[in-house]
Automatic annotation (TrEMBL):
This is Nicotinate phosphoribosyltransferase. GO terms for biological process: NAD+ biosynthetic process via the salvage pathway. Pathway: Cofactor biosynthesis; NAD(+) biosynthesis; nicotinate D-ribonucleotide from nicotinate: step 1/1. The lineage of its organism: Eukaryota, Viridiplantae, Streptophyta, Embryophyta, Tracheophyta. Catalyzes the first step in the biosynthesis of NAD from nicotinic acid, the ATP-dependent synthesis of beta-nicotinate D-ribonucleotide from nicotinate and 5-phospho-D-ribose 1-phosphate. Helps prevent cellular oxidative stress via its role in NAD biosynthesis. Belongs to the NAPRTase family. It comes from Lupinus albus (White lupine). Gene3D superfamilies: Aldolase class I, nicotinate phosphoribosyltransferase.
Length: 554
């Protein structure tokens, strides 16, 4: 099958070339064979993909990974080489006809309904509903979960970091070197951006997804210099191009001397580290328009900050504006406040406009807890570079999404368990978000496919799917249907177009702003209500009693 057209062009394959029909568990192929052997493989099945518990001890999740899912099914086709490998993996007794069947399958008869990517979502509500021939849909289970579980987990982690940092701070994803392999690194950069981060250090992600890139230099660059004598070409053209400063190094040294002898700053430091000054000067000559220095290689306040200021003031003389500093160790709250005081003193003493507003970036094993602690201590950091804890989702390893059969041949199916949280909600459903008077979402409700949809201003009974006494009437002020058609198969339904990454990010930010603050807080957040209609409640419990074997006491 030729991949379906997206806005006039063919939908590209998955970003990662490893995402092929073989990226699945062996039992999906063994089941496909058993369905085929029994003549059941074409039976129409409906599966729900959902999760049971919000991650990180929170009460919300950001849904991500949909675009990669659609790219995967748009290009789903087994090659001869792949079929030959499957033949080797399965029992020798498998009939040749099955492999002929595999040659012909694609996703042209599969329908996918999904909540839009970037939406805030909750447990039990289907993120995706997949309809199609049971053998084909079964082959999609593992790759779908693989593409959605981590994407949603890391987007949620990013959103939680954004929530703690606040809207005004710049958040930079610096996790590539510590990520779980190349795919973990690239995926994390993409989905941290969705969750509200502003930029990444990951060049590959910048190229693939158009995410803004940020980064300057490391401690190695600073310690690679021994003295100012190493700088051979000392000239720097003024920003307006009107003239050239032939000895920028001398200009820097003059400024350092002025700072040393200044009334307000003289007592803070004595001699600064000259090799560090050489590194800063050299970097400024290379990047005069965005000079940002890592100031903690030797001593932040006695060397790094004064050296940075000398170079920044020299650049200012030539019409350039320095970018700021990065702190990568030590007491970040204290050092950021001291650096800010230093910058403000320079602005006041030398009359340099906005020098006091110099950007201070902090990095060094930051996470939600350290951001929260910095807020409580009081700090002057403008931007945070966050890596390990963010991209590895250190606080929780996996989301735990599941893929459950809810209907076959128009017959609802249920999965029972002694653990009520693992009982599935049967049948093909429609899902709605009901909003209250203040504009906040109040409750998500699932109904049977053919039930009338909730209406604005009309009272509806919302029931907890499993707890009889938990129920409430809601009069919605706005009703939003959650599942939309992203892959219509051979049906004539209109297909939603896949938005660009920036639009997914904007949706995520808007969605988070819509939520009631008590659902979002870090400590003891209020659970968001997920419900079913009265009719669906009755049906779940009727089916449950029908399918559960009756015990017998001797």
């Amino acid at each position: 099958m030729e991949a379906k057209k997206e806005n006039g062009g063919v939908i590209a394959g998955p970003t990662n070339p490893m995402v092929t029909p073989l990226l699945t568990d062996l039992y999906q192929f063994t089941m496909a064979y058993a369905y085929w052997k029994a003549g059941k493989h074409q039976e129409r099945a409906v599966f729900d993909l959902y999760f049971r518990k919000n991650p990180f001890g929170g009460e919300y999740t950001v849904f991500a990974g949909l675009e990669e899912v659609i790219r995967f099914i748009a290009n789903f086709r087994l090659t001869e080489e792949e079929i030959a490998f499957i033949r080797e993996c399965l029992s020798a007794s498998c009939e040749d006809g099955f492999f002929d069947y595999l040659r012909g399958i694609d996703c042209s008869d599969v329908e996918v309904y999904s909540i839009p990517e970037g939406t805030v979502v909750f447990p039990k509500i289907p993120l995706l509903r997949i309809e199609g021939p049971i053998a084909v849909v079964q082959l999609l289970e593992t790759p779908f979960l693989n593409l959605i579980n981590y994407a949603s987990l890391v987007s949620t982690n990013a959103a939680r970091h954004r929530n703690v940092a606040g809207k005004s701070k710049t958040l930079l994803e610096f996790g590539l070197r510590r990520a779980q392999g190349p795919d973990g690194g690239v995926g994390a950069s993409k989905y941290c951006y969705v969750g509200g981060f502003d930029a990444t250090s990951n060049v590959a992600a910048g190229k693939l997804f158009g995410i803004p890139l940020r980064g300057t230099h490391s401690h190695a660059f600073v310690s690679s210099y021994m003295s100012l004598d190493e700088i051979i070409d000392k000239s720097l053209r003024r920003k307006d191009g009107s003239s050239t400063c032939e000895d920028f190094v001398s200009l820097v040294q003059t400024w350092l001397s002025k700072i040393q002898w200044s009334k307000s700053l003289g007592g803070i430091f004595g001699e600064t580290n000259q090799s560090e000054l050489a590194a800063f000067t050299s970097y400024a000559l290379a990047f005069p328009n965005n000079f940002l220095a890592l100031v903690d290689t030797y001593d932040v306040m006695r060397s790094g900050v004064p050296n940075f200021c000398a170079v920044a003031l020299a650049l200012n003389d030539l019409g350039y504006k320095a970018g700021g500093i990065r702190l990568d160790s030590g007491d970040l709250a204290y050092l950021s406040c001291e650096a800010r005081k230093f910058f403000c003193s320079i602005e006041k003493e030398f009359g340099v406009p906005d020098f006091g507003k110099m950007i201070i970036t902090a990095s060094n094993d930051l996470n939600e807890e350290t951001l929260d602690a910095l807020n409580k201590q009081g700090h002057e950091v403008d931007a945070f570079g966050i890596g390990t804890y963010l991209v590895t989702c250190y606080a929780q390893a996996a989301l735990g999404g599941v893929f459950k059969l809810v209907e076959i041949n128009n017959q609802p199916r249920i999965k029972l368990s002694e653990d009520v949280s693992k009982v599935s909600i049967p049948c093909k459903k429609r899902c709605y978000r009901l909003y209250g008077k203040e504009g906040y979402p109040l409750v998500d409700i699932m109904t049977g496919e053919n039930e009338p949809s909730p209406k604005v201003g009309e009272r509806i009974l919302c029931r907890h799917p499993f707890q009889e006494s938990k129920r409430a009437y809601v009069v919605p002020q706005r009703v939003e249907e959650l599942l939309r058609c992203y892959w219509p198969g051979i049906s004539d339904k209109t297909r939603e177009t896949l938005p660009p990454l920036k639009a997914i990010r904007e949706r995520c930010i808007k969605q988070l702003e819509l939520m009631r603050p008590d659902h979002m807080r870090r400590l003891n957040p209020t659970p968001y209500k997920v419900s079913v209609s009265a009719k669906l409640y009755d049906f779940i419990h009727f089916l449950w009693l029908n399918e559960a074997p009756v015990g017998e006491l001797q």
